What does this fold into?
Amino acid sequence: MNIFPEPNPLVKCPKCGQTVDIHELLDGTVDYWDAADVIIVKTPCCGSRQELRVATGELLSGRVYAAGGPKFRTATAYNVPIKVRHSRDGLDVEFDDDSKLHIGQE
Ligand SMILES: [Zn+2]
It folds into this structure.
């Protein structure tokens, strides 16, 4: 399900339903689980813990589950204006205003 057909920086919080900007959302990253390629964020709207996977042009909201290794089940897919590159120690995210965010393990 993609609720926004065009690239849009707004993502809906799965917990409280508020829309939040993807930059603000990813600024709340508390952990990156590289084995599952999943980002754990604390949402700016209600402080809930969410599991996300990001790729260029895409943000997936969902949940990690174990099936012979960590797998990710997508609940909602968003078409977002970001570029994502995997680096040695995490992810480099570039937003459409050219600002950058590094997500990695401490
Ligand atoms: Zn929320």
Remarks:
- The chain has a mean pLDDT of 92.
- Residues 13, 15-16, 18, 43, 45-46, 48 surround zinc ion (CB under 6 Å).
- The radius of gyration is 13 Å.
